[in-house]
Amino acid sequence: LVANTWYMMGFVYDPLEPTSRRITVYVDNIEQSTYVTGANIAAATFPDAEEMAFLAGLKAGSATASSLLIDWWSFGQLID
């Protein structure tokens, strides 16, 4: 990623995918070749029993004005 450049990021979790690609990452609507695996999810460092929601923040250590622009965000969940 490069500063001062817009990116569209996306993540899709599909428990029915093979364990080698449980979470798929998209950058600018292009599927990336790196996935979050079932082993990554099972590791102690992956969030467990925590609600995951959108969160964005901005902090500056100076008096200079800062801004954060979020073009859009979306969430979806299939219920059986």
The biggest sheet amounts to:
3 strands, antiparallel
Rounded mean pLDDT is: 82
Question: How many helix segments?
Answer: 1
**Element-level helix/strand string:** EEEH
Main structural class: mainly beta
- Portion in strands: 15-25%
Textual characterization of the structure:
With about 80 residues, the chain is mainly β. About 5% of the residues lie in helices and about 20% in strands. It has one helix and three strands. A hairpin with a 2-residue loop joins strand 2 (about 25) and strand 3. The relative contact order is 0.14. The mean pLDDT is about 80.
What is the strand and helix layout of this fold?
Layout: E1 9-13, E2 23-27, E3 30-36, H1 38-42
Antiparallel strand pairs: 1-2, 2-3
Offer a quick outline of the entry:
The protein is mainly beta and 80 residues long. It has 1 helix and 3 strands. It is extended and about 50 Å long.
Descriptors for this entry?
3-stranded antiparallel β-sheet; 80 residues; mainly beta; single chain
